[in-house]
Amino acid sequence: METNTLIATNNSGSLAHDVGPLKNWLLKSGIGEMQLIHLPSFKRVLVVTESKEAASQLMSKKGDLGDIRLRYTLTDTEGALVNPDEEMGRLQVPPHKRTFLISPPTSPPPEFDYSRCEEPPDRVGPTDLSGETDFEESETDNEGQRTLLSSSAGTITIKPAETLRDRKQEPLPHTALPPKSIFDEE
Questions:
Q1: Where is this region: Disordered (predicted)?
Q2: How far apart are the C-alpha atoms of 171 and 175, rounded to whole Å?
Q3: What is the pLDDT of residues 28-69, one digit of tens each?
Q4: What is the per-residue pLDDT across 129-139, written as a single tens digit (0 to 9) for each?
């Protein structure tokens, strides 16, 4: 797929430090305006042309480059070189009106008594709560139905299944042993 941007690379990585041979070749090609974006950490140079046609003309002449390889990028590059009438596709810096200072919370006044700030938690054990419960203990009636909890909010009961006693115990399926590893000791 043709785009207006080319990626220039080479095997030796010298393109990351010396863009001169590529720059001279681009000047001799006479294609028109171009923008070089040097990416030394990626060992690449991006060549942005005015149009896809200019990039395809450069690709047709790439045999004169030697060990430098050219490839198309996946998408077109947009910017002032391609569309000079468009504004930049970046957010504008907001106008400087006023700066808000966010300060930490204020410390308490000097007469503040830290010992009265909070009381320790109550020390109540489970035996102390026996008189405060408003639910009944679990009961079982003659049908096997068991009441777990009965309170003013509701009642929780368990009724055993009638078909459970008649059901035969099914044997559990046997599973295969996992394969032995060559690292297992025998």
A1: 97-186
A2: 12
A3: 888 888 888 888 888 889 998 888 888 888 888 887 787 888
A4: 555 555 455 56
The pTM of the full predicted model, rounded to 2 decimals, is 0.44
What backbone torsions phi and psi does residue 34 show, to the nearest 5 degrees? -145, 160
Q: Give strand pairing partners of 6.
A: 47, 72
- Exposed, middle or buried: residue 61 (CB in 10 Å: 0-12, 13-18, 19+)? middle
Q: Taking the domain 5-72, which CATH number applies? A: 3.30.70
Q: How far apart are CA 78 and CA 45, in angstroms?
A: 17
β-pairing verdict for 5-10 and 68-72? antiparallel
Residue with tokens 């395809």: 56
- Those residues whose C-beta lies under 8 Å from the C-beta of residue 24, and which sit 6 or more positions away, are none
